[in-house]
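Morning - nicotinamide-adenine-dinucleotide inputs below, output right after.
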Amino acid sequence: MNIAIVGTGYVGLVTGVCFAEFGLHVTAVDTNEERIARLANGEALIYEPQLGEMLRRNLRQGRIQFTADTARAVRESLVIFIAVGTPSKDDGSADLRYVEEVARTVAGNLNGYKVIVTKSTVPVGTGRRIQRIVHEEIRAGSQGVFDVASNPEFLREGSAIEDFLRPNRVVIGADSPQAVAILQDLYRPLYLIEVPFVITTIEAAELIKYASNSFLATKVTFMNEMANLCEALGVDVHVVARGMGLDHRIGPKFLHPGPGYGGSCFPKDTSALVTIARAHGCPTRLVETVVDVNEQQRLRMVQKIVGALGASSDPGSLMGITIGMLGLAFKPNTDDVRQSPAVVIISELQRLGADVQAFDPAAMEQARRVMPKVDYREDAYSAVEGADALVLATEWNQFRNLDLERIKGLMRRPILVDLRNVYDPERVRLLGFTYCGVGR
Ligand code: NAD
């Protein structure tokens, strides 16, 4: 079966490569021609474990091809997945311009029955909007019959391939039994390993994605609030998290406190859910508060750093201070810095006058584009040279066992602000550091 994936970012590329791995013939499309040329050359472009080898293997075996010609890809495919970005607009709602652009191109190139599937995270009602756009084009003379389906993606950056090949569930929203049957067929290898399928309406599938991400963001934020309370009460948040997580109704995951959630999904999806709910006259007050508390949490981390340095939060208060920042990506095993807490914290520290030296194992190229004024270093040790404080912002494995004696010798002042609670406070203090974690 021939399928097209439109958009070759984190989701489109992983989806395309994994469907090729399932044995399908995939045409992956992007408007960014340089991206297409490099992908066709076997460069994975994003940092994602296993992706590069799998891409090159499927290219060699002729199951995946890359093109900037969306029209051709549509004409040659039975199923078209839309996997383009749906960034936040200024009012928090999802910007659907790329999705609609693809829908119009698909509509103009229908040459037989097609299934148009949204894999991008899109507001409830987008599937119907795509149906309307395509119907209008058909009235204008285009040929063909089609169905629209929603098949939201739940992969996590950093373990995207694993998540795609062994997901917790596959959600398919469609009105047409034919569209459902075709999508089930695409995912047949997952049936064999007994992955649960949720077959539902387009609207329910669209909402499942936002509800899932907003719930996870709420869980993280709840724990961050507990961590802040633990600091006030002199209690260790990790003991509280363990005590809570052993309750099966709560579960141990997503109870780790830190600098607030980030990345390309939780911030934009929580904001989008808030605007969807308001537009339907049914505000989600809980999620609105989560968005607000998460923003405060990042600024609270800046206060923590300023406090550890014995400085104030007045503009210019950190003039002459150097911060060594370890980690820029919003989480380990990715190079994605979109809405990364590290980026927000660095820009705030710079606003207060600090100089920032940073190292990240994968995200420095991406970070340079958004933060040109950071002094990027080649490893963790050179990032802390002459620093007044070391801030650990992303828990990459290689930061878990740093030679702290050596670090202490390199720093101007031995202050460790551990925003991911990676280090044992007692041990670090015994080495002569001032240690500051989150909720302990
Ligand atoms: P991305 O920004 O990494 O990639 C989007 C790609 O689409 C870009 O390469 C862009 O050039 C391309 N594009 C834009 N307009 C196009 C057009 N008209 N034709 C062809 N290509 C076009 O985005 P992403 O992180 O892959 O996210 C895509 C969608 O999937 C979003 O809705 C996102 O919310 C959702 N999602 C993302 C993740 C994640 O972890 N990144 C997980 C689940 C769902």
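Note: The chain has a mean pLDDT of 97.

O.
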